[in-house]
Amino acid sequence: MTDGGDKREAINFASVDSAPKRFAGMISPRRAPLMLLTFTVLSALGLWLINQPPLAALFPNRDLVYSPHEGRHVIAIRLFILSFYLSFAAFAAAGWRDRLGFGADLVIIFSLGCAAFDLANVLAHYHLGRAFSLHLSAIGTGIYGFAVYSFKLLERGHMPARIRVEHRPIRQTRAILRLGVALVIAAGTSITVGAMELPLITQLRQVALLGGIGPGVFLFLPVLFGQLYLLALWDERQGRARFAPPLSIIVPAHNEEYIIENTIRAMDRAAAHYGGAVHILIMNNNSTDATEQIATRTLASCQAAKGHVINVPKPGKSNALNAGLDAARTEFLVRVDADTLLGEDNLTRAMPHFRDPSVGVVGGVPIPPGGALFDRARLLEVLVKHGFYSVAMGAVNGVVGIPGMFVVYRTDQPRYLGGFVEGMNGEDTDISLRIGELGYHAVVDPRIRYVSEVPSSYAHMREQRMRWFRSVYHISSRCRDLIYSPSRTLRGKVILPYMLVNSARRAMLVPLLIHGALEWGLRFNPHSPILWQSVLAVGIGAPALVACVAALLNGLPRAVLALPEYLIFRVMRGYFTLESMLSILVSPRGERLERAVFEDRVADGPARIA
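Above: the chain's sequence. Below: its structure in token form.
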């Protein structure tokens, strides 16, 4: 498998999906470094100026805070965010006028929010005789800054047009009760542990692992999602009866000669274990190599499965998927990526979930093949994201997306929704999300494990992650009806906004490390003796704890050995997120432009539209 991956790197892995032309542009690898250099200059200049008279007297807390607060900040978060806004806008994918407008919009909205924070603090000090904690104010300001950035980029970026997302209300009493109880227990545990004065707790506050913020804070997420994870396993505690209806497997394939034979043989072994009828459809998507010939020969030699090759000359993965959807003749549809090797029991484990008529989507956990540059870090990443968080969210019917590497649908549901969206990134998450909004459950079964290729070069990893991280905005834009409509939906009101804010946090990770290092290294914040620990904790604290919990719960304790690689990979992932955001085309019209395109295409006919 590793050899195949190396062969893949010799192929031009870029495709029409790498940068959808209506929404993104291919950017030079030099743009992000230049942006970070500009940010470093602005950040250092701002920190230096605020430490000089008369600004030092005006801002004794060494940040742009306009009201008295109790305590000290750890990092000058407002200076950081303003420096990031200005440097990002200066290198955004837009003309200079649009860049100026975008930067001004970010700065003005953020400044107004900070003024509101400070006004509330003044009123609290005046009426209650006590000001807010500067530390808590910085956390609130930071989250607000992330939100302003992500929603303004969503507003001004060239994005897929907003569609009307059909939402069918279902009873959520159990999900709400579970989430509420889990939140209370997690908060109670965090507060209790944070208040302890035990010698161990005191020592933990001083080390880089926890950044001096307190162990209680970092316990919150593991305790919250740990409870939900166990509830999800409880839901599956009883074995399901065998269920083996006929299946169609669609495999979009573009220049996959290096691996398509292994992919088909893995599906044939899974079909033999499954026992039901399995028909494989290899969707040859404009390949220029021997994909078609190898696939045809391999399908003819299958022992348990049958299948054939369908040529799809129009490039684009969604075009191939929709051609496969049209060709499928079974009640259930399996989507498999061409570089995915199914486990022998994957179909056997997945299909019994569909005995429950409320289940609409089923997926599993992708495992890297091992041996390549990023495979060890990727293993911890998938255990955290798919093997822990996604499984846990299933307990409250909150799964947003199941990756298209291996996923099973009821065939009628993607057809009812018009197929897989074309011309944008994230078609797999889009379809899973909208099936969920139809009232169906999405299930991630941690027992379903399959091998999925991991890019083995920096360039290929960069291309992949830029696609993936842009998809958060494409999906949120297309489905923003869930965010702004009055429908009470967990995905729309909580998870999509969280995904946007988290994407902003990830894009700012490398700049935040630079800013913190400047503030500590140049002694701009002498009143915060724990600042260096806090800087390291951004990339080490909570992520390390969650990764260890996820590895243990998934029965792969050896994965913890890759923790250092995983933490470094997270920083690189943050850098790729920043590059991905810089590739988004920006203009003042933003969504209005895409809405006009959307309306024009609707008028032309009922074609599938992005």
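The beta strands are 247-253, 278-285, 306-312, 332-336, 340-341, 359-367, 406-410, 441-452.
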